[in-house]
Amino acid sequence: MSPAAAGRVPQKKIQLLSALSAFRTMVITWYGYSCFKIQSGDTVIITDPFDKSIGLNPPRGQAHIVTVSHAHSGHNNVESITGEPLLINGPGEYETRGIGINGIFSYHDSKEGKERGVNAIYTFEVEGINICHLGDLGEKKLADEEVEKIGDVDILMIPVGGEKTIDAEEATEIINQIDPRIVIPMHYKIPGLAGNLAPVEDFLKEIGAAKKEPQEKLTLKKKDLPQEDTEVVVMKV
After folding, report:
1. Number of neighbours of residue 61 by Cβ within 10 angstroms
2. If exposure means fewest CB atoms within 10 Å of the residue's CB, which of 138, 151, 174, 209 is most exposed?
């Protein structure tokens, strides 16, 4: 047997692994602002951990991967996370524990970074589910190149509260560009949060979704993803 053949994964095994991923469970928890915990098995991802300056209790606990969209205090409190996580704080391609992460360059404002600098969008492939976290995106509309780099998205985490990022109308436009299966709004006004962000109800009205009962956790498998209309999931802190 040649070395190339020895290292090749049989096609039947690839198909079996792909089929099994449809039945594995992923759990998403929201801590507020842009911070989520994404857990698959014993692997934990934390996005944009915040500090107490925003008015909420900072996230705590161990993680294997921490992503930071930009260097503002509401998004880069990596010291609150324990363990020895892989810290990802900018564009590039990364892989650890079987999870592929792609960091995509974008802007934190609509003037090519002249007001608030740059922002990293992250895509994750977890259990065959493609997740996109837009960070503190400030662009009113994504460029075609950005949409192409983001690719197919099953779950989109998108800011909707305005102020220093996109608002409800702009978020709806970007959702139409990306066309995800599930939308999780983030970065909007909740009790205790400092600042003047708009409430999630403004976004739900703009996108034409009924008022949602917030969920404490989103637990799903690939086979559970909606196949037709995009579903909006509002989460509870």
Report:
1. 13
2. 151
CB atoms closer than 10 angstroms to residue 211: 9
> Does residue 6 or residue 10 have the better pLDDT?
10
Q: Which two tokens stand for residue 145?
A: 């190149």
Residue type at 62 in one-letter notation: Q
Distance, CA of 70 to CA of 233 (rounded, Å): 25
**Alpha carbons 27 and 41: distance in angstroms, whole number:** 9
Angstrom distance (rounded) from CA 138 to CA 134: 10
For residue 9, give the amino acid letter. Answer: V
The CATH code of the domain at 9-232 is 3.60.15.10
**CA 181 vs CA 176, 196, 231: distances in Å:** 11, 29, 6
pLDDT at 124 over 60: yes
**First vs last Cα of the chain: how many Å apart?**
55
32 token code pair: 């507020």
Number of other residues whose CB lies within 10 A of the CB of residue 185: 26
Q: Write the single-letter amino acid at 143.
A: A
- 56 vs 52: CA distance, rounded Å: 6
pLDDT in tens, 125-145: 998 899 999 999 988 899 999
Bridge-based pairing of strands 155-159 and 129-133 is parallel
